[in-house]
Protein: 16S rRNA (cytosine(967)-C(5))-methyltransferase
Amino acid sequence: MTPRRDPRKIALSILNRLDSGRKTLDDLMEEADARTPLGKKDRALLNALVLGTTRWRGRLDAALVCLSNIPLEKIDPRVLNALRMGLFQVQRMDKTPVSAAVNTSVDLVKTFSGPWVAKFVNAVLRNAARAGADEDIFPDFQTDPAGALAARKSFPKWLIRRWLDRMGPQKTAALCDAMNQIPPLTLRVNTLATDRDALIRALESRGFFGEKTRFSPDGVTVRGAGRDLFKSPEFQNGWFQVQDEAAQLVSYMLSPDPGRIILDACAGLGGKTGHLSQLTRNQGALWAMDKSEKKLAKLTVEMKRLGAGPVRTVRRDLSRKIQGMGAFDAILADAPCSGLGVLRRNPDAKWSASPDKIKKSAIRQRLFLKNLSGRVKPGGRLAYAACSMEPEENEEIVEAFLAENPGFTVDTDPPGLPEKARALLSASGFLKTSPSPHDMDGFFAVCFQKTGN
Structure:
């Protein structure tokens, strides 16, 4: 009999590798899944431990500062991650007995440290269990509002400060709470294959509850779905893609017309490429560009599953001038960014982000738009989007682009945007979504129109 793989050991390994900063949590989870497949129950435990410990790392550390007689910066990072993961189980996993949380954490530490370290971990976690609630250990909100929210809500203090300056305490707290929620699974129906009502009926016949999204006419939120959803005939037959409602609205901002030449300039794995294909009814020429050959290969497989295309893929680095391509009627640029709008999905991003990285992202985004602007036909459209709510990556990008490109204007009334989504559109033509109050990822999108015919 094959020995059972320990999800806690795998989780600790992922957390330790995450500290190196070389790979994202998504990448590490995908690698672990390919290397050591787990059963349904163990996989759920692994996901809960890794995502939960990462999401609540700031609050866990604030508690550990009070519980440990050793400064956190002097603790072996592997031991610190074991403490975080153990404390997360003690404080936030009600179905895990305290004894199991403590004992398994001690056993993990014994595999790479001496007996005294194991005793230290045991003492810290048992003290935490006896102490119970940790509310009284946090900074006082009246004297240190940023510190209080950072510790309670588990966010970097620098990020809380900028949100407080921009939104005030109530909206900042609400945003943090929304970012700390496990996001729903949202699908986009592939209208090349079926319609939304038919998809919902099919999913419900298999025990999945589907609900129509509020703003996107193609979206379905699914509750209680696991991996079985992706083994269903509906998935195999290309009836849907996984895509957050906010990301769905970005393609509508471009307002693509059938029969046109269209480029998805930062295509990734093809979420928006698939949507553009269905919005144009596979009529016209659709190109997908990315600098990753691996992603483009996966995109090609995905388009085949959806019955989308044909889609022509091209590998290009948008930080360099585009060579060997003609002009397009419409270009969509969902540019790489800080990712601070999707922290509920990628909680590791809040710990790797920094003000300097936001500035560097903005520089890269401006360069991407500069290189793409010359590929837009007169009268054509260029939609820019970022999964960020930070001004440097949003409004300031628009301001800089218009100053450098007087031949473009903002389309303040994109004709393809669904009627219900117009409530999210500002008078300036900016589409803004947020986990609070919209229960969507945080996105910004705008569509530029090039003058001429």
Summary: The mean pLDDT is 94. DSSP finds 19 helices and twelve strands in the chain. The two ends are 71 Å apart (CA to CA).
